Amino acid sequence: MASAPPPEEPQISATFPAPPPFYKLYGADSQLPAGVAPPGPPAPPSGSFQLFDRMFSLDEPLVPTTANYMIEGGPDGTVDVKGQLMSLSQEVLPLYLELLRTLIEAPEEHSGALQRVASVMSAMQHLTNMIRPAQAWATLEHLLRHEVADKEEALSKLRTQVLDLDRLLLQAGQELASTVPPSDQPM
């Protein structure tokens, strides 16, 4: 009877990759001679890179301009956000229908139609993000107005209750004074 081979021991693996070997230069137990500084960090990357099958460029501005999003600004640089959103929302439906027709008739040529829909949707998202600070201020103003109104109402009720209590105390004092005979002897 043949014996079964011994079971393999499970291997321990880290969930994160090991740090690069030059980390030893930066610790308290670094192997650099005294008075010698470790090398500086590497230069930041430049150019472009691919992430999730999409190319990104590090040379692009961090905050895209409105020109990148088909958004028309006024001569003074202001943007009619509501009008632009209405215009783009009316434009996106025909583009979407065109994309569907392209997918049915010629699926291999879908990239152009998809890019047009994506650019309109991106412009709509950019416009929505432009109004978020104004929306936050309006929401805060609305909440503060309600809070002030609630406090004024509570203060009004409190004042009414105080006046009612003062009236009741005055009546109770008058009733007490009328029912208790004056005493001749001081206490």
Describe the secondary-structure layout:
Elements: E1 48-51, E2 54-57, H1 81-105, H2 110-179
Antiparallel strand pairs: 1-2
Helix pairs in contact: 1-2
Explain this structure.
The protein is mainly alpha-helical. The protein is built from two helices and two strands. The longest helix is centred in the C-terminal third of the chain and has 70 residues, at 110-179.
The count of β-strands is 2
Could you tell me the mean pLDDT? 81
Question: Radius of gyration, Cα only, in angstroms?
Answer: 38 Å
Helical/strand content category: mainly alpha
Helix-residue proportion = 40-55%
Strand line-up in the sheet with most strands: 1-2
| Overall geometry | extended
Measured by DSSP, the beta-strand proportion falls in under 5%
Low-confidence stretches: none
Helix count from the secondary structure assignment: 2
